[in-house]
Write a structure and sequence with these properties.
Layout lengths: L1 H14 L24 E7 L2 H9 L4 E9 L8 H5 L6 E8 L6 H10 L8 E2 L2 E2 L5 E5 L2 H17 L9 E4 L3 E3 L7 H4 L4 H17 L11
Parallel strand pairs: 6-7
Antiparallel strand pairs: 1-3, 1-6, 2-3, 2-8, 4-5
Helix pairs in contact: 2-7, 4-5
């Protein structure tokens, strides 16, 4: 049974987040939308952006989430380039939200429930700097909010180990390829989604139930 378990684990690892995705059009880069009037934008990275983007999109006040890359030093990166870990970019989710409905602080708290912020450069079967936990701030208030939440998470011992999330100033966001956008909802038959992403989203729903959109509170 142990060998069988390792066999299936290796298959999931091989499939990984976005491994082997091809197809004309699907590999075209998605557009980066401008925030609507009154909207604010937040950017977080916590492992594969398939589950992170889905989780954050289910929150009240969030209008859209775009999967992409940030935190590195390569212009216009592609998934293939980011996967080489030479760009220093991480897989991230850019969130467009109404601050009158959900605050940046609430989004940040949700971010820490949507992944394990205590594992350095790793989330589940995904390992590497492109899967690191990283939170971007756009002003001093957001930086203070992130640092305060990290202290709170550490003090409550919600996780056994301390938070290792990078807190860095936002510089630029690059949208990922079209096929990454909304991937969780359209590829439920993907073994990675059912075995890795779905359990994370279900755990998130349980933790953040009061702040979810009605259709996800069931």
């Amino acid at each position: 049974m142990k060998k069988l378990g390792l066999y299936f684990a290796s298959i999931i690892l091989f499939l990984g987040c976005a491994n082997g995705q091809t197809g004309a059009g699907r590999n075209a880069i998605a557009s980066v939308p401008k925030p609507a009037a009154g909207e604010a934008v937040a950017t977080f990275g916590g492992g594969c952006f398939w589950s992170m983007s889905e989780a954050m999109s289910e929150l009240k006040g969030v209008s859209k989430v775009v999967s992409g890359y940030a935190g590195g030093n390569t212009k216009n990166p592609t998934y293939e380039k980011v996967s080489t870990r030479t760009t220093n970019h991480a897989e991230v989710s850019q969130i467009y939200y109404n601050p009158n409905i959900i605050s940046y602080a609430s989004l940040a708290e949700a971010f820490f429930f949507a992944h394990d912020p205590t594992t350095l450069n790793r989330q589940g079967p995904d390992e590497g700097t492109d899967y690191r936990s990283i939170a971007f701030y756009r002003n001093p208030q957001e930086k203070a909010t992130l640092e305060g939440i990290i202290k709170k998470v550490n003090a409550t011992k919600h996780y056994t180990n301390p938070v290792v999330t990078q807190v860095v100033p936002f510089k630029v966001f690059y949208a990922a390829e079209n096929y990454h956008q909304g991937y969780y909802r359209t590829n439920g038959d993907n073994p990675y989604i059912s075995s890795v992403s779905e359990p994370k989203v279900m755990k998130f729903r349980k933790a953040m139930k009061a702040q979810l959109k009605p259709e996800f509170q069931k």
